[in-house]
TrEMBL record:
This is GNAT family N-acetyltransferase. It comes from Sphingobacterium paramultivorum. It comes from the Bacteria.
Length: 236
């Protein structure tokens, strides 16, 4: 059963749409905790930080967003980024996890996942949407094998991932970040085997399979699947 909806569709985010994405992400996060999302000083601070991160990640990332068919507003998002081992990750700044600690895992490629959120306004198909988004984001690292996915993850989402058959390793204690209890985690690509195989059969990935395949193949050809810190990478 392929994922379809009369009301929503998945698409890739364009760079000029990052402003829209960050506003959606912060607004939706505030809605989950019944907070005022007005443009106060804290909101502006978070907006500038998140936009800066996404601008630095965009060229080695793929973003999926769920939009409604009527107004084309964003209602869900996720991002998967190849890490060049040089760009500073949020996990390093927020949790003081060193680059050396991450690189000590001795894998061939590293990834960062983020901007994963689904609007509370979506009442139906939430589980199907969640599985599809995770599948499409996890597929490129899993395709290349022997990789590591790094994330700053809401504690409740860590538990949800485990229920879906995706274990993770906690690199430190939780902190309150963007209003939620957030953990520094990583997921080895082999830990995704169960989830990928189960949902590949369910064909949650079909609508974006070409994008995911192309991104994974591009990563491999650009030297992302090496063990020398990406030094073989060819410029765009």
């Amino acid at each position: 059963m392929n994922w379809t909806s009369d009301n929503y569709y998945f698409t890739k985010l364009k760079k000029e749409e990052l402003f829209e994405l960050i506003h959606f992400y912060l607004r939706t996060t505030a809605e989950y905790y019944n907070l005022d999302d007005s443009l106060n000083e804290e909101y502006t601070h978070h907006y500038k930080n998140l936009l800066g991160e996404d601008l630095s990640f965009f060229d080695t990332s793929i973003y999926y967003v769920l939009r409604d068919r009527k107004m084309h507003n964003i209602h869900a998002s996720i991002r998967i980024t190849y890490w060049d081992r040089e760009t500073i990750l949020p996990i390093q700044k927020l949790f003081s996890v060193s680059k050396e600690e991450l690189l000590s895992q001795k894998v061939n490629h590293y990834w960062h996942i983020g901007r994963f959120i689904i609007s509370k306004k979506i009442e139906g198909q939430r589980i199907s949407i969640l599985k599809k988004m995770l599948f499409d984001a996890f597929f490129p690292p899993h395709f290349l094998d022997n990789g590591l996915i790094i994330a700053e993850c809401d504690k409740k989402l860590v538990n949800t991932l485990l229920k879906l058959g995706i274990p993770s390793y906690e690199l430190g204690s939780p902190i309150i970040y963007l209003y939620s209890e957030t953990l520094p985690i990583y997921i080895r690509t082999e830990w995704l085997d169960y989830f990928i195989q189960k949902n590949k059969v369910a064909q949650y990935c079909l609508a974006n399979s070409d994008d995911s395949d192309s991104f994974a193949i591009k990563a491999k050809h650009m030297g992302f699947n090496d063990n020398n810190g990406g030094k073989n990478r060819v410029s765009n």
